[in-house]
User: Fold these one by one.
Assistant:
Number 1:
Amino acid sequence: MDAMNNSEAPKEALYTDIKSFFDSAPPLTHGPDISRKLNEFIGRNSVSSGKGNRVVCVTSGGTTVPLEQRCVRYIDNFSSGHRGAASTEYLVKAGYSVIFLYRRGTCQPYCRSLPDNPLLECFESINESNIQVCQSHSEAVRRAISEHHAAVAEGLLLKLPFTTIFEYLQILQLIAISLRSLGPSAMFYLAAAVSDFYVPWESMAEHKIQSGSGPLDMRLVQVPKMLSVLRKEWAPTAFCISFKLETDSKILLEKAGMALKKYGMHAVVANELLTRKEEVVVVTSSGMISVHRDNTQSGADVERPLIELLVERHSAYIEASTI
Ligand code: PMT
């Protein structure tokens, strides 16, 4: 047996954890269908199709951790998917084709200005056979429908839903491997809130856990961080942006800096839970840039200047890669 040096040992352990995560995960129900959609989408945007668009994978919303195989209960998190949905709109505007990997039921691109229950709140019944858009929402509905329709019709938006941590990581791997062919033109914008702990499938109760058996004692295993394997193996030439969320501002920037180095990210977007809609800090190897929402403009959000900055950085990365 070869002797392992210190840096190889943790790497080996990580790869073993990743392998055992994927080996034991329940297979995706629509895996072949997802692969087909991805190949078509990426083919339509490749250089050989004459388009040569940049393609970005935006992840959005939170993953769930099921507690039972026939799931009745699960662990969830706070993420609304607003960041991913808003960023998708600005990326499409900037000329990117977007693979939107989103948690079912979370915020969708082009729907942010609609009320929570658009079907019931934006439409009114005139008589038994006629329904029309309420005057107060007509502008928002018209804009949402036409912008969404244009993005899909032009082949600029592919939406792929997930619910569990198992689905999320398996689909992310499929996307990353498919995007490898685009080299530096591909981008990852990993805004999803990914579970840190999970119950491995094989040790999970099959049926609903019974409450009559007293306090619940359950062991959660750490979800292996996929960022380094994404960077090094799945899509090694893509431009990768991850996010760092903390509730304690004192440790946020230090943790973001550590993630940048440890996972070889091109940028880490640091945000604090309470101020995440107002301000983020983009941490790169050349320094930190604070990005704010422009409060002088109505409807402005922090994602607009954030995407402008990241698109600029991606352009510089592509240029440097082609020299
Ligand atoms: O959806 P909103 O309500 O608009 O909120 C947006 C947001 C706060 C969720 C978003 O801006 C954000 O910060 N997303 C990342 C949250 C998160 O999971 O942070 P983290 O510090 O736990 O993870 C850091 C990075 O590691 C993330 O990019 C994540 O994709 C990745 N990760 C995390 C766990 C894990 N097991 N594997 C991973 O690869």
Note: The chain has a mean pLDDT of 92.
Number 2:
Amino acid sequence: MVKPCLLEYTREALVDLMAELGHKPFRAAQLQEWVWKHRTTDFEQMSNLPPALRAQLAERFSLRPLSVVEVSNSSTGGTRKFLSRMADGGHLVESVIIPAAEGKGGSRSDRITLCVSSQVGCAFGCKFCASGLLGLTRNLSASEILGQILAAEEISGTRVDNLVFMGMGEPLANIDNLLSALTLIMSPEGLNIGARHITISTSGNVPGLRRLAEFGKPLRLAVSLHGASDEVRSQVMPVNRKWPLGQLLPALEEWNRTGKHKITFEYILIEGVNAMLPEAAKLARISRRLNAKVNLIPYNTVEGLPWVRPSESHCRAFAKALSSAGIPVTMRYEKGHDINAACGQLRLKREGQGEG
Ligand code: SAH
Ligand code: SF4
């Protein structure tokens, strides 16, 4: 039996645990300091806890829900992907460490953005996405989401100060664990990362969006749009049949009523599918309605998929059509350096070796 991981325990949950184990409530704060301030990986190091408590904890709990099995460097930009094996059953997920871009923030190498996975695989099956090809194996627990952050810090020797949920999986389809993880990520007793440093990327899970809005934190929201009409969007994103634009856009308007930041629309440019100039005009209309900015992502080739990336001049023409319509637009070409080139298309080459 795999021991449950303590990472996802909030202060309140630890206080309850201390009561259950017959210890004073103030031990919860001490324990939490060891877990988050000192990032301790061994109960034996928790020198101000009574030995009996340390032994009880060690018998029942773990401090890390995953172990890193591979770290790979990208050829450009200092981006590093790592592969972690979950403590139970051995499923694998990828995460991506992205150093702060030079120029931005004064080329400080002490700042990193981490792209985390929220599920093993994904049930949404978007037609351009490597993660979707796998289908969904299971949700990640809050501890497994948190564990990726601690692993990234251990690999890089640097604190993670920006977090993007753009790895494998649909974060809003795992909303309970996402919210539990976010609570500890944002808590001063936990990782103390501010909501404005956290981006949730969603393919448009409408009930999940409502729950995230109710959570009431000024998180950043990225929405994978990839089609500005139901016809085009449904062609590449089956989720659009469940929550078509007629439901998604009002839910985003609702988000805007409480949200503090502009929504970002992610739009992959795919030759002959959604990259025609009339589509840019439709995208501009939607973006204006939602007061959103647009991040264009020239499609990155996924082995086994038929789609084609448009030429650079075509991508530029599409971007120009948006900016001429007054929509803030960004586009990045460099592979590996760009968050979207690095995350969002994580696919395990080693699945099958994951079990056991
Ligand atoms: N499920 C969430 C988060 C993970 S995907 C979502 O869909 O938003 C993160 C981003 O990477 C999404 O915008 C996704 O559409 C994009 N992405 C997936 N496959 C890609 C590919 N082959 N080329 C470029 N971007 C891709
Ligand atoms: Fe899932 Fe996002 Fe990939 Fe779609 S793009 S299959 S929602 S991970």
Note: The two ends are 13 Å apart (CA to CA).
